[in-house]
Amino acid sequence: MDTKTLLELLCNGKGVSGYEYTIKDTIVSAFDKYSDEISVDNLGNVLALKKGSTKEDNIKIMLAGHMDEIGLMVKDIEDNGFIRFTNIGGIDPRTILGQEVIVHGKKDLFGVVGSKPPHLQDPSEHDKAIKMEDMTIDIGYSKEEVEKLVNIGDTITIRRELLNLQGDRVASKALDDRAGIAVLFECIKELGKIRHEADVYFVSTVQEEVSMAGALTGAYKINPDIGIAVDVGFGTTPELSKSDTIELGKGPGITLGGNIHPRLRQKLTEVAREYNIPFQMEISPGPTGTDARAMQITREGIPSLCLSIPLRYMHTSVEVIDMVDIKHTAKLLAFFIASISNDSLEGLLCY
């Protein structure tokens, strides 16, 4: 399976935070061919281990990309059959009005998100964004029919499949962070071509969008020497400042900030320059809001890094990435991992 095919399968699938088990088998099937060991832990993380070339006391490096996506959840069924809903993860209500959705009840049910037409709104409502609590999902059934198929707590996802744009760019829901899973997949294939001392754990984590629980428990179990989160960063668009964004097609963003180990970050940039891999700097003075934060504060503290894939329109159903950045990010990770040895690790981790 090539990386783009895996990305399409994952993005077209469903896996809202807490319900990632629906795409677990796709990830296991893809990574199994390239792993020495693969397992699923108690929380649902998929852990694929690629062993290093040394036999004992190997360095352990954990790569984390989260497999969950933001979504919606049924909270009420009205007398007329309309479904009221709430959000799972950070959703801007302005982006869901008029969307096609899939209600994941006893079977998948097509529906649409609606609200009061503008013609019937009060003048005072015209310039205000419609709140989520004022929207409903219409699947076309009466309340009696809905209740046979839908329960309170069922998840809902936007109905969207991956689209090819021009060049190497694609648009989809859930590229945050299934693009990160694609990077991990590309990286494990790259590591099959080069020697590396470290044992590398490729962890597809759960629940990043709501709690980072998967990275916390995964890092506790593995207790790695180095943790690296692979997530997405804000891609440059006309309305955003270039200083706050990273550009598509120009390589991953290497994060600078309090969550990031300075010597490891310096080594990462040196490797990028050595192998002519394009990269950008991403500033995150506070918590990164990624699995890097969770890994950093696990156990006694794990030296951590964060690599960000440039992505436009984050947390919408039309997120956009450039597949070139997937390849650049994976190569940088692979060469960085190959550069870490038992002899060099202690010096890199010193402050």
UniProtKB/TrEMBL annotation:
Q: Which UniProt keywords apply?
A: Hydrolase, Metal-binding
User: Which CDD domains does the UniProt record give?
Assistant: M42_Frv
Keyword Hydrolase annotated: yes
Q: Tell me where on the tree of life, at the top rank, the source sits.
A: Bacteria
InterPro entries under this entry?
Answer: Peptidase_M42, Peptidase_M42_aminopept
The reply to whether Phosphoprotein figures as a keyword in the UniProt entry is no
Q: What's this protein's family per the entry?
A: Belongs to the peptidase M42 family.
- PANTHER family per the UniProt record, alphabetical: AMINOPEPTIDASE, AMINOPEPTIDASE YPDE-RELATED
- The protein in question is named M42 family metallopeptidase
